[in-house]
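Fig. S4 source data, part A: sequence.
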Amino acid sequence: MLSVDKLIEIYGESNPTKVIKQENSPIKIIEYKSIFQREFSSEYGSNPDQIAHSIRYKNISSDTIVAMRFGIASFDMFNHMLGKFAGYATETLEPMKVENGEWVQSVYAAFTFEKYGTGVAYVDAVRFESGKIWNSDLALVVEELQKIELSLTQADLLENKPRNN
C-alpha cells in the first residue's frame, strides 16, 4: 500500500479533514490527512475503492503510553457518515514523543468520498504503562460530528455496531 503522502502526490490534494480536540486528551493530533484511493485489480475485475487516513500524533502527558485507539470517520459528498472505525497503535510512546499512523478504510460507495467527502479523527482511548486508561468524552465527539451530520448519536459511534442509513 502506498503512504497517504504518496497518494496525495499522485492524486492531488487530500480531502477536507476535521480533528476533534479534547482538552484533557493525553495525545495531541498534530496532523491528519485523508484521501480517496482507487486500486484497480485484474483479479475478478474487482475495484476495491478505499479511503486512506494518516495521523501524526504526540504524547503530551508526563506518562508513558503503551496503546492508543483513534476514532476515524468518513463522510460522503452529502455529509452522511460512510463509516467509522478504530485505528489502533500499540507502540510505546514516551512523553513528548511524536509518531505516525496510517489506516485504510473499506466502505460501501467509497467513491462518494472522492472529491467532496470529509475525514474526521479524534483520540478515542489511551492506555498508560501504569495500566490506567483514558477514554474520550463521547458526548463531545458526537456534538462535533453532528456539525457534519445532525442525526448522529452516541450509539452510532460504538464499535462493531452496524449503522442503519
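Fig. S4 source data, part B ends here. Strands lie at 17-19, 27-37, 50-59, 65-75, 81-89, 98-105, 118-128, 133-135.
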